């Protein structure tokens, strides 16, 4: 499907951010999106290597993500496959998506861009490569902004 | 419920897997409501073929057709797009939370390595 992009500036060198993103110790520090603990983290940061992270959110729910490092250009770029092996975002279950992490050196440290592309099936993968993803995003946002009442 | 949502997204994206249908959706996003013949005009395909594409888009709920006298007008329907929007927002929340924690961790590591070098 379409994709989500987040950008963050971090006061640390790209090599430090790269390690934080790819090592098991690093992943254990940030993979849980709220203040809950990461229960286990394993990572083999090389092309073809895999990672697996299990965490518990503050509300008590447990989730696990796993994936494979598809491309690594240290310290500039990481591409990995990504799936929820338990818990997670309901409509993402049993689906492999793709996360690209781009690191850019800036005066104050690193600008990190996360691009998470949720490829739901072959058709959406085609749409994605055809550049439809961005167009759909625009469309979606336009309608979200127009804000007609939710019929369900 | 989960599968239902997931199937809905599958159908939505497979409906959008065709260039003619994408062009139809893009035009409707620009022009709000159009008659079927206005919609068909830029395409080299015949009206029945356009109608078939409209059927598929209507099945997934991406468009609505309304009859006004002898003209059928077509407009975009935002509901399935909102399903996609929900996914994006949830995904954004997850990554925003992660990036907060990642920044704290990496910045702490950076300070530690600078202190070691001093």
Features:
heterodimer, A: 7-stranded antiparallel β-sheet, globular, B: 118 residues, 2 domains, 3-stranded antiparallel β-sheet, 5 helices
Commentary on this structure:
The complex is a heterodimer of chains A (152) and B (118). Chain A has helices at 14-22, 24-30, 122-129, 132-146; strands at 3-10, 38-43, 50-56, 62-73, 77-86, 97-106, 109-117. Chain A has 4 helices and 7 strands. Chain A is an alpha+beta fold. Chain A has one domain: Alpha-D-Glucose-1,6-Bisphosphate, Chain A, domain 4, CATH 3.30.530.20. The longest helix of chain A is centred in the C-terminal third of the chain and has 15 residues, at 132-146. Helices cover 26% and strands 41% of the residues of chain A. In chain B, strands 1-3-2 form a 3-stranded antiparallel β-sheet. Chain B has helices at 2-15, 19-31, 36-40, 47-59, 79-117; strands spanning 33-35, 63-68, 71-76. Chain B has 5 helices and 3 strands, in the order H-H-E-H-H-E-E-H. The longest helix of chain B is centred in the C-terminal third of the chain and has 39 residues, at 79-117. The interface between A and B is large, with 55 and 44 residues.
Number of strands of chain B: 3
What is the overall pLDDT average of chain A?
82
Total helical segments of chain B: 5
Give me the count of strands of chain A: 7
- Judging from the principal axes of the Cα atoms, what is the shape of chain A? globular
Strand content of chain A: 35-45%
Multimeric state: heterodimer
The total number of structural domains of chain B is 2
Output the strand order for the largest sheet of chain B: 1-3-2
Compute the CA-based radius of gyration of chain A. Answer: 17 Å
Shape descriptor of chain B reads elongated
